[in-house]
Amino acid sequence: MSFLGGQRSFLNLLFEVVLIAVGVFLALWANNWHENREHRAQAKAALRNFASEMEANRQATQRNRPYHETLARELVQFLRSTEPPSEERFNKEVRFEGVRSVIYEHTAWDLALATQALSYLKPELAFDISKVYTQQNAFQTLENSFLASAFTPASMSSNNPKGLATAMVVYLADVNQLEPTILQLYDKVIPEVNSALSH
Description:
Helices cover 83% and strands 0% of the residues. The protein has helices at 2-80, 87-93, 107-115, 123-150, 153-157, 162-198.
């Protein structure tokens, strides 16, 4: 009797251990499934944000391309002329409508970093998106530096626009190299983001 009773209590104990193990396994599996589902939802939201934000930044960059190219040509012609540089001649020969710098949106990037949603994307896609925002940041730094140094009270009070025109030619040379590079990145990465969204 005691042998059978001992065998039953061992079987009961074994059964309880198996039930507990299965329960723990199912709880962990459910937790992992829930986390993965949450991560997929965060990744999808980040991709939607990236797609719309990069598209807005691309359109803003494209809007400025013709103006920057034309302005660079007009400034070079103004500086090459044998006539003395004057404000009147500058206003007549150069259609200057401001620098037209792009204020690149980066809220999607900041949010993806804050929520760690970037880590839920495929590494290759996250790398390509990072390259876009790095390039935008570098361009924004160039724009800010030029604006801070070129448009000072001393430069604006001068009646001779040659100094400002020369600085703008150098600046626009960089702009007219960087903008096409950024547009190429958009043309590569935006379809990648849209493709990841559709799967």
